[in-house]
Amino acid sequence: MADVRSLPVPEGLDGERVDAALARLFGLSRSRAAELIAAGDVLVDGRTVVKSDRLHGGGWLEVTLPPPPAPPRPVAEPVPGMTILYEDEHIVVVSKPVGVAAHPTIGWNGPTVLGGLLGAGHTVATSGAAERQGIVHRLDANTTGAMVVAKSEIAYSRLKRAFKERRVDKRYHALVQGHPDPLRGTIDAPIDRHPSGDGRFAVVAGGRPSITHYDTLEAFRAASLLEIDLETGRTHQIRVHMSAVRHPCVGDLLYGADPTLAARLGVKRQWLHAIRLGLEHPTTGEWMEFESPYPEDLTRSLELIRQES
After folding, report:
1. What's the confidence (pLDDT) of residue 51?
2. What are phi and psi of 237, to 5 degrees?
3. pTM for this structure?
4. What pLDDT, on the 0 to 100 scale, is given for residue 128?
5. According to CATH, what is the number of the domain 167-309?
6. CATH classification of 3-65, choosing from 1.10.10.10, 3.40.190.10, 3.10.290.10, 2.40.160.20?
7. Distance between alpha carbon 125 and the CA centroid of its chain, in Å?
8. What are the residue ranges in the chain where pLDDT is below 70?
9. Cβ proximity of 100 and 274 under 8 Å
10. Which reaction(s) does the protein catalyse, per the Swiss-Prot or TrEMBL entry (predicted)?
11. What is the pLDDT of residues 141-172, one digit of tens each?
12. Neighbours of 76 (CB within 10 A)
């Protein structure tokens, strides 16, 4: 069922283009906002508009939003390259390969950790939304490394709480451009969706609190290998924070990385790997740590940059 929103134009959007204003108000992309305007689903003071029209503060905006599409269900099929680091009746820890999302989402047609586990005959907790049952944290599709999935309901609830309360140790290795100064530090900057509405995230005033600790492990001529400890777990957090301090992950073209350096090293995605995961077992309370070795593409590029230096 369509969702009709009626509201006065906020004074802060006075003079803003209609498509840009819709993107900010409703979290849409500019192209999606333009589609709604072209379809006649946006009225200003009772009249249809074009996307380049300007709003005036205090005007009346009426927008008909289509119903959200149904979330996709996981496809149970084995995922090549996904290995099991640990498994018992309550949890399974995997080493996630590149090009694999944590769970199905709208717009993603590739393999998922959840589908891979189901396809290989593993059980997962039934708690949570159907498309992400058992998922207690996520890695980006092109970020590799250690990831835990809940198999029992008690593990799901206790792990969700542990991640929320920051009682899980998440360590990443990132090859970033240049040399951070200082060599060890903390980035404390709020993150939210990028104002462009293009799917990126950014450091923005009023965003969600986000804290990243980093330490330089090795410095090369053009880049540095960092160990990163996440205190919070925002979407794209490491990628956004490192880009914000002008040291984007090598290969992360979405967040401003140098394509020439990426090509020279043969890096076709962000150089970012979840190397270690430490947590209390949800039923025994035992502290457990799991380590995921670098995949071949990251190992190869690291060897190349060492040779250059």
Report:
1. 92
2. -55, -50
3. 0.79
4. 77
5. 3.30.2350.10
6. 3.10.290.10
7. 22
8. 1-2
9. no
10. a uridine in RNA = a pseudouridine in RNA
11. 999 999 999 999 999 999 999 999 999 999 99
12. 15
CATH 3.30.2350.10 fits 69-165, yes or no: yes
The tokens describing 286, both together, are 């035992």
CA distance 5 to 164: 32
Per-residue confidence (pLDDT) for residue 2, from 0 to 100: 64
Annotated domain spans of the chain: 3-65, 69-165, 167-309
Question: What does the block give as tokens for 250?
Answer: 């090598």
Q: Looking at residue 261, what is its pLDDT? A: 97
Which member of 140, 169, 198, 252 is catalytic? Answer: 140
Three-class SS of the chain: CCEEEEEECCHHHCCCEHHHHHHHHHCCCHHHHHHHHHCCCEEECCEECCCCCECCCCCEEEEEECCCCCCCCCCCCCCCCCEEEEECCCEEEEEECCCCECCCCCCCCCCEHHHHHHHCCCCCCCCCCHHHCCECCCCCCCCEEEEEEECCHHHHHHHHHHHHCCCCEEEEEEEEECCCCCCEEEEECCEEECCCCCCCEEECCCCECCEEEEEEEEECCCEEEEEEEECCCCCCHHHHHHHHCCCCECCCHHHCCCHHHHHHHCCCCCCEEEEEEEEECCCCCCEEEEECCCCHHHHHHHHHHHHHC
Structure tokens at 255: 């967040």
- The two tokens of residue 261 are 């350096």
Residue 53 corresponds to which tokens in the numbers above? 């029209």
Residue 252 annotated in active site: no
Tell me, yes or no, if the two domains 3-65 and 167-309 fold the same way.
no
Measuring CA to CA, how many Å separate 16 from each of 13, 64, 101, 155, 203? 5, 19, 36, 48, 22
How confident is the model at residue 176, as a pLDDT? Answer: 98
- In degrees and rounded to multiples of 5, residue 44 shows phi and psi of -120, 120
